[in-house]
Design brief:
This protein has about 110 residues and is of the alpha+beta class. It contains five helices and four strands; from the N terminus they run αβαβαββαα.
């Protein structure tokens, strides 16, 4: 990954308490897994931003290298990779995701 792409990824993550690298946008997810994460975050009514990896091939490949996580979507809270759709669903079902979001937004 080139240094510019890495810098862009770091900036997106650091500028937003809740951030999702996904296929599509939060208004129009382009895959079921990305849609799952969007629906979960929307259910909490929290502010979050997204990056459409389909629109940016450098970010699409770069985020996988940056995080050492092979799949999209990738949910970040307070700069930390939480995981993809399956992990977000699991944390949501356990009630843990809401706590993580509240802590992030309170900081």
């Amino acid at each position: 990954m080139n240094p510019e792409t890495e810098a862009r990824i770091k900036q997106l993550i650091s500028d937003n308490k809740i951030f999702v690298f996904m296929k599509g946008t939060k208004l129009m997810p382009q895959c079921g897994f990305s849609n799952n994460v969007v629906q979960i975050l929307n259910s909490f009514g929290v502010p979050y931003e997204t990056c459409d990896v389909l629109a940016d091939p450098e970010i699409r490949q770069g985020i996988k290298e940056f995080s050492n996580w092979p799949t999209i979507p990738q949910l970040y809270i307070n700069g930390e990779l939480i995981g993809g759709s399956d992990i977000a669903i699991e944390l949501y079902q356990k009630g843990e995701l809401q706590q993580m979001l509240e802590v992030a937004l309170a900081s």
